[in-house]
């Protein structure tokens, strides 16, 4: 930071006037008893895409008839609040067809979770009896896993499982910590320009920053990137900086053509990125509305990927 350079693994260094960091997440060691990164090949987190998601898929496909898939859900705040529950829906969707007597066990340290009413309604409609969630009232916050024995111990009660997705507690990607711009687990920023509260020449966006009221999502990261780019351009060239506006929508698919969503708009205050207003799908919506919501999510995906990658 003093020299305003970024060191590259290959040995080179790149000078900067402004540095934008978007390093995503890392996991908090020791947050799930019995699990560390050396367990990830037996009990994948599958929360960074690539080999981990491939491995989890292979393990689910290899489950014996009537077997158990367990998920240890993360505490707040974490990447993609509805993500674990949409994943459960997709696993249930697969198992309903390939292994209909299989069970899904969610061990959850949180009292409640994103779009809970919508997911629970969908699970009852599509996957009745397949999914059980153990919240903190019943020991969901006191879990130990054993990747050798393939067991999950919930408050002293041990269950043998066939596939286990452990999603640990999260923090900002390690480079933010190395740069000394984190406070606790995340990097605090000024909402108006996404600049670090510790270094005005560094901007942090996406999952790694303390994003105020915004959830950690790709949509949010993209929205913050635009505010950040506008501010950096203004700072370096003197061009007009438009008032920051942020938006997010998180769509989730529960079953074929059964899409739901939650979203909001946000503004920059001195304190944080603050929510202005929001919306959420309703329980009991018609299948036409749910199918339209699903199509909307496909349209969003096409739009954001072309926005990002051309
Ligand atoms: C199962 C699941 C479902 C999701 N569904 C949605 C969804 O439907 N909609 C949505 O909006 N979001 C969704 N998300 C969330 C979304 O993926 C993240 O919020 C988004 O990727 C965050 O972007 P980011 O830039 O902060 O981090 P990332 O996308 O993780 O990018 C960070 C990058 O920085 C790299 N990096 C880190 N440190 C270094 C370093 N020192 N040197 C070089 N490179 C480095 C990393 O390798 C990575 O490529 C989902 C996430 C999951 C896990």
Briefly note the CATH topology name of the largest domain.
FAD/NAD(P)-binding domain
Main sheet: strand order: 7-6-5-11
What CATH architecture label of the largest domain applies? 3-Layer(bba) Sandwich
Bound molecules: flavin-adenine dinucleotide
As for the number of domains, it is 2
The helix fraction, in percent, is 25-40%
Structural class: alpha/beta
Largest sheet: 4 strands, parallel
Question: How would you sum up this structure, described in words?
Answer:
By secondary structure, this protein is of the alpha/beta class. The protein has two domains: about 15-25 and about 170-310, 3-Layer(bba) Sandwich (FAD/NAD(P)-binding domain); about 30-170, FAD/NAD(P)-binding domain. It has helices at about 50-60, 85-100, 115-125, 175-180, 220-235, 285-310, and strands at about 5, 15, 20, 25, 70, 105, 130-135, 145, 150-155, 155-160, 165, 170, 185-190, 195, 200-205, 210, 245-255, 260-270, 275-280. Strand 13 (about 185-190) and strand 14 (about 195) form a beta hairpin. The model has no long low-confidence stretch (mean pLDDT about 95). Flavin-adenine dinucleotide binds near residues 173, 175, 208, 217 and 221.
